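Minutes, project check-in
Item: structure for the 364-residue chain
Input as provided by the requester:
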Amino acid sequence: MFTRYVLPVVAVATLTFAALQVVRAQQKPEPVTPPIEPGKSPFVKQLAGAGIVEPETENIAVGSFTPGVVDKVLVKVGHKVRPGDPLFQLDDRALRAELRVRKALLTSAEQSLAKLRQTPRADERPTQEAKVREAEVGVQNSTQQYNRTKALPTGARSEEELVNREMGVELAKATLARVRAEFKLWEAGAWQADKDIAEAAVTQARAQVEQTETELTRLTVPAPQLRWKTNPAGQPLPDTDGVEFEVLQVNVRPGEYVNAAAGNALVVLGAVGRMHVRVDLDENDIARFRPDLTGVAKPRGNPDVSFPLTFVRLEPYVIPKKSLTGSNTERVDTRVLQVIYAVDMQGRRMYVGQQMDVFLNAGP
């Protein structure tokens, strides 16, 4: 019964199931509409590239001049600062103590130089003249004693006593000569060489004070001073005295230790009054690129909005394309030419670091 009735029924059911599965597998899936349409080029022939928004001044990564522990952070994200405004400050207690020591050494060196310049002192003259008179009296006294001893009869004095009196006269004369020489030396004042040495010591001490003061000022990191009036393309920039930066990132906190390594972006600034877009053009499209090409930029997530672009400059060094992480080790097998365009924001808000789809009219 099983072989005659049940087995054929199972075979027919299995065959039907297999046929249904084959038919379903051959059906085309319904098209899926993305939540947000990507940007589309308005040009028939076009060059396209990915762009990223940056300030006209580019992103200014401010680091520390010297290593140390952060004492104060004086700005927050979104604050407006002008060139020279302080951003953060490092602990300065050690340098302030060193400055007090060096100022004391400077005072000591200045007083030593002043002492040399004031010699000979008028109030020391009576003392020096008294020494000369004392030595002269000593010569007179020794001479008189020698004469009296010499006038005595031979039996009343010894030869040794006479010789001692004579040596006493010579010693008094030598003392008088030494005192007179010292008086002339005192009267001549300090040697010029000693004054030069003292002046050099003052200069050295003053330079050490200035060095410490400079190091103290470097512990307060300010917003940079813009010393250029045009951008790299030679186009005039706004008056540098009126530049106002916006704090884009603050990557440091009080109590943290920072070093002076290159590329250590503790605070990121940018003048966001006028925005630029940095476009990566594939190296295969470089031959078709011209600076006079017109174009538009469309923000990611809002393809209905277009921002007209104006060519600013290009960076003629073709570089490897980087991923969004910004790490130099994460690259794809593509090299790109970076072109910078000014964006007409038309009163809309743009953010630094925002991605854009850029389309250039390649023409015929």
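Outcome recorded: The chain has a mean pLDDT of 85.
No further action items on this chain.
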